[in-house]
Predict the structure.
Amino acid sequence: MTNPRFDVVGIGNAIVDVLTQTDDAFLDREGLAKGAMTLVDEAQAAAIYDKAGPAMECSGGSAANTIAVMAGLGAKCAFAGKVRNDAFGRIFTHDIRSLGVHFDTAPAEDGPATANCLVLVTPDAQRTMLTYLGASIHLKPADVDLDVIKDAKVTYLEGYLWDPEDAKQAFRAAAQAARAAGREVALSLSDPFCVDRHRADFLDLIEGHVDILFANEAEIKALYQVDDFDAALDKVKGHCKVAALTRSEKGSVVVSGGETVAVTAAPVSQVIDTTGAGDAYAAGFLYGYTRDGGLATCARMGGIAAAEVIAQIGARPETDLKAAMALKLRTWDAAD
């Protein structure tokens, strides 16, 4: 097998995150539920955006966040996601490429606008999100470069994008191309509501196409329709090569074959914002995994990446993650 060009290629929703500071009075005036994520249409998104204050805009979306964090660690990454040839589409493209990520999905010339998520941050650090999915859910099989898939150690699929039929076909084509090339496939379950909508499909995908499964405690229990984490853990064993299951402050549990590894959560001075914690965990884990790290090391790297993200506002570390990772791993090893 030839040496792959990329460590990981992600496939997911291409969303521009628009972060702006606001106050409770603004939320009340606009009738917005504080701390909630609400799906909106293009007109609603534009109306609130026009009324909001100065904003910071960057590429976003679950799998895109994972890929961006991996790139920050020094991994070679690619991403496939659909934008339109508009202002937000150009922002997404420039931002993700500026991180060193290979992104060459052709933008749509018509149809829905580029997806965006307006993130309204109040002084108490709560985030109220208005998400317009736009062009992102119109990813088609032709938008995924199978040569890139074949040239990546791992193809990482975002569960959020499983709703549209074209996106499902793109996922399946990518997974088949990866397996045919002797590469591996990872899947994030993304959200318990995604699991409830697509349980049968996800179970089939995990059984036949997925090597590495990422899920939090709520998602894995929803997948197997059980109330107990240990029961879900028993059910997932043997259904994929590796299952990495996060448990918030309890750390994470990784199962592979007959091996089960439990790792405590990385210390956090203060939890500011948990948005993107799962995305960052997957990034740290896959960074270790693509460098042949052991399960415990991969889980620790995932935990450290997640800890860095939840100690700030935003889904991507503002600190030098590579340096923080090296320091915290040494500290962790010394403690053991």
